[in-house]
Amino acid sequence: MIYSFLGGMMLSLVLCLLLRHVKWLAIVLAVITVFFCLLTVWSILMYRAFSYDGKRRMSAQIIEGTAARVKLPAGGKCLDVGCGSGALAIAVAKRNPQASVIGIDRWGKEYASFSKALCESNAKAEGVRNTTFQQGDATHLDFPDETFDAVVSNYVYHNIPGDRQAYLLETLRTLKKGGTFALHDIFSKSKYGDMQAFVRKLRDMGYQKVALIDTTDGMFMTPFEARWMALSGSALLVGIK
């Protein structure tokens, strides 16, 4: 994101200078340059907040906080939907060495820096051997009903166009009776519709202890951070099937 926005800023700036004799066009390009400049600054601040190497380390807090919700039995299995770089799958696996964790992702071109090889390399670097990774589709999981003792995800479904509540149900379909789930995402009304109604729906379906926990009230981030990062609505959907 940083390089893309920086490239857009430089391109529009060069065009603005080259075409400065066309006044109206130069003004338009100047506005675009400022816009890309602001996006570049925003993405740098986001990177610094989320980076594992920075002081804020928000990614680590989210990953560890989500993984802490999962306790697997000996020989149990967990599914991480949209595993990206493998961070959440690895965190769950480290906390549950007696169980196994499968991470799936489509690893599309829009997230070209993520890959199966990267996940496996990260697991090896962390000394984790109870993880496997494979390509998969969050909207149609290639697993039978009630396969896993736990399902997890982090910032996945809001990136997928369509009925996001249906995608949640597709993930929960693979969860065993009595299994736990911890799904972190931007559960805003604009992206998901009425999530409180969805929580009630899960309870009516027989799910136990279902809760939607706001993670922008200091749990993972402050309300101010959530606003400027465009992460308002971030929450953990947790419970037992």
3D architecture notes:
The chain has 9 helices and 7 strands; from the N terminus they run αααβαβαββαβααβαβ. Strand 1, helix 4 and strand 2 form a beta-alpha-beta unit. The model has no long low-confidence stretch (mean pLDDT 96). A 7-stranded mixed sheet has the order 3-2-1-4-5-7-6, sandwiched between helices. Helix 1 runs antiparallel to helix 2 and helix 3 crosses helix 4. The longest helix is centred in the first third of the chain and has 28 residues. It has 2 domains: 49 residues; 183 residues, Vaccinia Virus protein VP39 (Rossmann fold, 3-Layer(aba) Sandwich), CATH 3.40.50. The protein is α/β, with parallel strands linked by helices and 241 residues long.
In total, how many domains does the architecture comprise?
2
The span between the termini is 38 Å
Mean pLDDT: 96
Q: Order of strands side by side in the largest beta sheet? A: 3-2-1-4-5-7-6
The fraction of residues in strands falls at 15-25%
Total count of strands:
7
CATH superfamily of the largest domain: Vaccinia Virus protein VP39
The CATH class of the largest domain: Alpha Beta
The radius of gyration is 20 Å
Structural class by SSE content = alpha/beta
Element-by-element helix/strand order = HHHEHEHEEHEHHEHE
Report the biggest beta sheet as strand number plus sense, adding barrel if it closes. 7 strands, mixed
Which oligomerization state do the chains in this entry correspond to? single chain
Low-confidence stretches: none
**Total count of helical runs of at least 4 residues:** 9
User: Helical percent range?
Assistant: 40-55%
Which term fits the overall shape?
Answer: elongated
CATH architecture of the largest domain: 3-Layer(aba) Sandwich
CATH topology of the largest domain: Rossmann fold
